[in-house]
Amino acid sequence: MQQNNNHIRHHKNDRLETIKPDYRGNKIIKGKFANGDELYYPDFSKVLKWQLTRNPQREEKKRDDYVPSVKHGCDFITSKEDMVVWLGHASFFVRLKGINFIIDPVLFSLPLVKRKTELPCQPEQLLNIDFMLLSHAHRDHLDQQSIKTIFKHNPQLKALIPLEVGKILRNTCRHLPYQEAGWYQKYDLVPGAVEVYFMPAMHWHRRGLSDMNKMLWGSFVLKTPELNLYFAGDTAIGPHFEEIADLLGPMDVCIMPIGAYKPSFLMAKSHLNPHEAVRAYNYLRGGTFVPMHYGTFDLSDEPPSEPVRVVQQLAAAGVLQGLKLPAIGEPLLLKDLQ
């Protein structure tokens, strides 16, 4: 689709390093962020079709009472080990080189969507967090109550976020320091032992009636001399996975979304299904595969156990190497994953 160049501009944080050669910044078309060169708007008619169409797996879903198991306790907070800990949905605690990160923290139920799983500990027990990473501003990834709670108990916290998402943080926690990045940019707030890069994802933004694609979305790579850790955020399948591996090297740990993919006519340009998640992981030349974005909130039509069952089948067939399915709150020690 051709675009009038008068309506196109590029945006990045000029104070940050950009690792893709000659990259001008994220393309903004008619005031809206694009997926590379393509504007994407979720089609309301497809949402309406979803609401009016009977789910062919409705009865199966109704009988499916799967929820992820939970390992209770907060020892992972006080441990000195480098680790990855799933907190449910797309929320993770990560320690690298002794630096504590929390990613996309959503610690409570959402408006109209009840959380199905417990946390391993109380939200106020999540202490000594150095950095909060937010992949995008959809409500199941950026929750203002969770951010307020974490910042209240972690006054040293700094946030690493996409372009324009600072507008939400200023209204949420006025004194929370943050740094915005565009795709292919390296944040400069993190001590030198860990590098954090904001990388592409194929997704979209909307929180209100008039802010469609006014804020950026993306993924993260956390890089040390020994390890590359990739957090996919929300994304559809696309060429960005291979590009990320080409720019930053194979991803030793890949945190990949596997849920909220049915009906495909609605979800295919927003989320990965399990087969696509495995394909993307292979494009990333991945090591350990840690699934997320399933089991915590009911956001789609597939039965809750289906995403897990499919990735287990792919692992058994040899298509997926390195699958780890931790309980919520179960530490995956990085020394054991390499």
Automatic annotation (TrEMBL):
Entry coiled-coil feature ranges: none
Gene3D superfamilies: Ribonuclease Z/Hydroxyacylglutathione hydrolase-like
Gene Ontology CC terms: cytoplasm
Membrane-spanning residues: none
Residues annotated as domain Metallo-beta-lactamase: 100-294
Domain of life from the UniProt record: Bacteria
PANTHER family assigned: N-ACYL-PHOSPHATIDYLETHANOLAMINE-HYDROLYZING PHOSPHOLIPASE D
Protein name: MBL fold metallo-hydrolase
